[in-house]
Amino acid sequence: MSAIILSEHDFRQEFREKIHAIAPDYQFVTDTQNLDWSQVILTIGWSSEWEKPLLAENHHLRWVQALSAGVDTLPLNTFANQNIQLSNASGIHAQAIAEHVLAALLMDTRGFTQAVVNQRQHRWDAETIDFRYLGEQEIVIVGTGHIGQQLARLLQYFGVAPIGINTDGHPVAGFSQTYSLQQLQQVVPTADYIINILPLTKQTYHLYDEAFFQQMKKSGAFINVGRGPSVVTSALVTALQTGAIRQAMLDVFEEEPLPAHHPLWSLANCVITPHVSGVVPHFQKVFMEIFLDNLQQFVTDGQLARNQVSLRDGY
After folding, report:
1. pLDDT above 70: residue 105
2. Among the CATH numbers 3.40.50.720, 3.30.1060.10, 3.20.20.370, 3.30.390.30, which is that of 94-272?
3. How far apart are CA 236 and CA 241, in angstroms?
4. The whole model's pTM is what?
């Protein structure tokens, strides 16, 4: 029986043919009914329902290609202990998320967030709208990877000199200054916007807590397109309710879907989108560029060409 590529996502015939051309000895499978799990060598995507049969004693799994950039929900320690390689889809969402954040920023600086509130109340009131130039705002981007760099490039067209935060503070093109994650508190008090694009790791879990929001200036805004559990949600709710910060624009949450009764829904100074910032119009094409490069390398020497994840660090 041939080796199996088990995919969580069905791909168009053109991509199946490319997979077959690179790995003719592999069978592409999306249906787990009557599947011989011991023959699965690699997966595209991951399901919690697969974990037990895929990692049984007689398994031959050697590589998991995640469909997303974030891999915090996968059993990383198990992969590490069993020498299973992991790669992610980092980079394919950069343009989409960068444009999502840019839209949020322009919506806020041009007063659309308040205008929507006024519209619901049938109120013609320009006096309540605070207009600002985007280029005059101090914008801190927490996460200087593919997405952060693309966002920084877009913001430069508006005259913004973005400040970047990464693990060790190393310089990154497009950022006027960079600081380490441990130095975040140095830039929080003066930032007009703080944008989280970090993956979820032990270091970033509940990074944005009560102390963080208390450090922000009252006219500051917080944007999250990274991971929901990086935020202590109750602390953010309190900060918005008490005016400790002016605004939040959130695409990700600790609990998803966000429960209908959650207080965030009813806060006028909170804009919610349902985890859609990373939606890519041509997902299959851009994802396959990564996967096919990796597949070619994998069938050649068992290694990966792109986006290999450090199982220790989680990104």
Report:
1. yes
2. 3.40.50.720
3. 9
4. 0.91
Q: Cα–Cα distance between 157 and 138 in angstroms, integer?
A: 15
Where, residue-wise, is CATH 3.40.50.720 in the chain?
A: 3-91+281-301, 94-272
Nearest to 29 by CA among 13, 11, 5: 5
Q: Which helix (H) or strand (E) holds 237?
A: helix 233-242
CB contact set of 232 (below 8 Å; sequence gap of 6+): 206, 208, 209, 210
pLDDT digits (tens, 9 = 90+) for 182-212: 999 999 999 999 999 999 999 999 999 999 9
Report the Cα 306 to chain-centroid distance in Å: 18
Question: What sign has the CA pseudo-torsion 9, 12, 17, 19?
Answer: negative
Omega before 263 within 30 of 0, i.e. cis: no
Task: Give the C-alpha separation, 87 to 287, whole Å.
Answer: 12
Cα distance between residue 115 and residue 195, in whole Å: 22
Q: What's the fold here for domain 3-91+281-301? A: Rossmann fold (3.40.50)
